[in-house]
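Tokens in:
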């Protein structure tokens, strides 16, 4: 059996996994677990481990010739499984309630609490978006996919992704303003929103190891 190394590319690992090399499959899962976990965790309540596992099992069965990044291929599978799951349960999970008074309180006892409140705020705002808009934002900010790559995952033209991203940013501004009572203009700074998104990504990643 060929030894697996960190320098092996994803396509090579996938091909070897399909021929029965379990170590190659384990390395693929190790590399991309957090990406797939984030995708499901931000959209569903409860345990998402089964959907994560099914995503990797499916990727070993579906043809992939390296026409796109492996991440793009994997997230396309995850999206299809998510849509099937939502059709099965016949409803979109509702976001958790948020204490607006708590978010407005400037007398927080620590920076960590402020960070947690900010993460909860952005997650609630994200979950108020439609599934397509939420996914577009997360693929752009969390996974740093290009617009053409996002279009591949969501199976729509690039122009549609541009429109969705602009629409999602505008709605996020409005939702954040509603949740905090602050003017929408306070959330115009794209770097600020990007920093919040990075914080939230870290929080979701941390939940994967609990």
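Residues out:
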């Amino acid at each position: 059996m060929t030894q697996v190394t960190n320098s092996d590319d994803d396509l090579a690992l996938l091909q070897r996994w399909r021929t029965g090399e379990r170590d190659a499959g384990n390395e693929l899962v190790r590399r991309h677990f957090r990406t797939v976990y984030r995708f499901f965790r931000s959209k569903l309540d409860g345990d998402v481990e089964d959907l994560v596992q099914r995503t990797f099992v499916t990727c070993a069965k579906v043809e992939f010739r390296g026409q796109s990044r492996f991440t793009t291929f994997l997230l396309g599978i995850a999206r299809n499984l998510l849509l099937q799951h939502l059709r099965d349960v016949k409803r979109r999970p509702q976001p958790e309630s948020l204490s607006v008074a708590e978010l407005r309180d400037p007398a927080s006892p620590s920076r960590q609490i402020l960070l947690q409140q900010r993460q909860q705020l952005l997650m609630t705002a994200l979950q108020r978006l439609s599934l397509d808009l939420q996914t577009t934002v997360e693929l752009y900010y969390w996974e740093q996919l290009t617009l053409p790559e996002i279009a591949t995952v969501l199976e729509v033209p690039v122009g549609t992704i541009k429109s969705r991203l602009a629409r999602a940013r505008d709605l996020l501004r409005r939702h954040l303003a509603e949740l905090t009572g602050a003017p929408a203009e306070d959330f115009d700074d794209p770097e600020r929103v990007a920093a919040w998104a990075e914080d939230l990504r870290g929080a979701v990643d941390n939940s994967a190891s609990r």
